[in-house]
Amino acid sequence: MTEIRWHGRGGQGAFTASKLFGEAVALYGGLHALAFPSFGPERRGAPVLAFTKISAEKIEDRSDIRKCDYIVILDESLFDGNFINDLKPEGKIIINTSLPDKYKNHYDKRIIAVDATGISSSVLGKPIANTAMTAVLASVSGIAEPLILYKALKHYFKDELLRKNMEIITRTFDISQNIIRQ
Amino acid sequence: MKAIRKFISGDDAVAEAVRLASPDFIAAYPITPQTVVVERLSEMVEDGSLVSEFMHVESEHSALSACMGASAMGVRTFTATSSQGLLYMAECLPYASGGRFPIVMMNGNRSVALPWSIYGDHRDSLSQLDSGWIQIYVEDAQESLDMTIQAFAIAENAEVLTPVMINLDGFLLTHTYELVEIPEKDIVGSWLAPVDNPYAMNFDNPRNMGFSSQPSDNTEFKYQQHKAVEDSRKIILETEKSFEQIFGRSYGGLAAGFMCDDAEFIIITLGSVTGTCRTVVRELRKEGIKAGLIKIRFMRPFPTDEIIGLTTNAKAIAVLDRDISFGYEGTVFTNVNSALARTHNDILKMNYIAGLGGRDIPKESIREIFKELEEGLTTRPDKAVKFLNLNVETDEKYSDSEDNSTQHHREGVLLWS
Fold first, then answer.
1. What is the ipTM of this complex?
2. Is residue B329 helix, strand or coil?
3. B12 to chain A, minimum CA–CA distance in Å?
């Protein structure tokens, strides 16, 4: 089972990202998924957690995620060096940062840093990085192709916004592939 | 069978099921973690995908009262609540069952105050076990949808005419998104017979709603209620069978056994923790341990015969209760024990109080329970009720060695003095 933990701030769309990714792999990727927010009251700007569990088999275990395959951080200010301890042996941290080089040689290359906000801003004109981060996760994990993310996006956006978010996913996926190859 | 697949939450799944069952009347008051059900239904009524009279009420007490009024007219009715809301409408629950109004209600299982908590456990619904309602518990969003549809068929059956409460664990089911197959409305419409309540009130058949009784006839009213819930066993099984023929899914009647045939150690569950336990049972089987699982799906009527049958070869059972009846034990345990007392007095029976107020129940703890069952066969612990992963030291003795319990005793004194 692949277990993913998402960090964001209320309003940044971390839960939507966890759901979009789960929806894509479950509806169009032939896999099973559960997506759930950190349960409890919601406040704009407050740190929030969201989770996605993905498996080839039906997921019956509804207990908390302890060790993660991927920790996806939408807001750099939430990054904590101790997150490394929450990863499985092959697990990776995916972080949205305007300065990717900062993380280059840290933690045995277990951090993938992408300027998702930069990409989103240039396409959308707004610093909303959640759809971009699903593309980074898709690229790093190899679980999802951009095509199934496009299909899932259609449940969330229409017309111009849909087109722009698809472009964000295409560009972010390509950039992530290049980063991984390095 | 044509169906569409959607990635939705348990709350969404219930709302979809209600849309498919198309009740004529809905009255509900929003409360976490049920709120989404009420929101979706009001949206559906607004956009016309559900044609229903949606009555806005100022409380849960009024919601169920309004449903009784509508149900008395012989129309299909639905409401939904949770926790404090369920307790606030508690006065109306025996009214609805005593009046034999076939109302369907979704309850998002949530702890009850104090301490105030929005998180899940079964203390709300189990406190209403004696209210005369049929109680269903489910473990995922698909089962939520399927059982909400079936709940109408069970409640409205002329032999039953008893309200049904369908329980979804707060957050773990209500707010978790997963793949759900949603059948077509026409197919559900042709499977689910229209309400045909022979006691419906109308101008041609005026009736008395809030009737009273005398000591000479009250027992007979209560006996008929009891008999209707007892008789619902047959209707529940028939409903599941006919649902399976059309929709291809079934869940195992009143209580579903998993690997129980030769099981020596069996865990008994209610609700969403069932899946976690099933995963552990599979792992233990691979390790050669004869583990099994019983998922209780109906608390009323209680699956007495099913539980007796499934524990034939058991040496020890553990009941996982997300509930505690203070000063005694978990309510599910009391019910299971009463069933097993008929035939299986030699089985070791343990009660684990777990998952209160939304606390996680990890796989490791389930494994630990099975280990304790095995050890318990030799140690025969004198105390059956144990709080799982308790974060305070206690002076209670379970299967600890003598030295350990002395240590705990000392710390317990320190803590409480």
1. 0.96
2. coil
3. 13
Backbone angles phi, psi at B152, to 5 degrees: -65, -45
Quick: pLDDT tens for B247-290: 999 999 999 999 999 999 999 999 999 999 999 999 999 999 99
Collapsing DSSP to helix, strand or coil, B211 comes out as: coil
Whether the Cβ atoms of residue A136 and residue A146 lie closer than 8 Å to each other? no
For each of the domains in chain B, give its residue range(s) and CATH number, in order of start. 3-194+216-247 (3.40.50.970), 255-416 (3.40.50.920)
pLDDT digits (tens, 9 = 90+) for A31-54: 999 999 987 777 888 999 999 999
Cross-chain residue pair A23–B176, CB shorter than 8 Å: no
User: CA-to-CA distance for A136 and B100, rounded, in angstroms?
Assistant: 57
Domains of chain A listed by start with CATH number: 2-181 (3.40.920.10)
- B138 at the A interface (CB within 8 A)? no
Give the bridge partners for A4, in sequence order: A52, A70
CA distance, residue A175 to nearest chain B CA (Å): 29
Q: What is the per-residue pLDDT for A127?
A: 94
Cα B288 versus chain centre, distance? 32
Distances (CA, A) of B147 to B98, B137, B155, B196, B253: 23, 9, 12, 20, 11
Q: Cis bond leading into B172, ω under 30°?
A: no
Beta-carbon contacts of B253 under 8 Å, excluding residues fewer than 6 positions away, are B236, B237, B240, B297, B303, B306
- Is A34 close to B361, i.e. CB distance below 8 A? no
Q: Do A27 and B171 touch (CB under 8 A)?
A: no
User: Which residues 139-168 of B are in CB contact (within 8 Å) with A?
Assistant: 139
Assess B258–A contact: CB distance below 8 Å, yes or no.
Answer: no
The beta-strand segments (E) located in chain A are 2-9, 32-37, 47-55, 68-73, 87-96, 111-114
- By C-alpha distance, the chain A residue nearest B273 is A62
Task: Give the Cα separation of A157 and A153 in Å (integer).
Answer: 6
Tell me if A61 and B118 make a contact (CB, 8 A cut-off): no
Query: Which H helix or E strand runs over A138?
Result: helix A130-141
Q: Distance, in angstroms, between B33 CA and closest chain A CA?
A: 9
| pTM greater than 0.90 | yes
Contacts of B281 in chain A (CB under 8 A): none
Closest to B126 (Cα-Cα) out of B335, B339, B327:
B335
Q: Which residues of B touch A39 (CB under 8 A)?
A: 118-119, 171, 175, 358
* CA–CA dist B82, B60 (Å, integer): 9
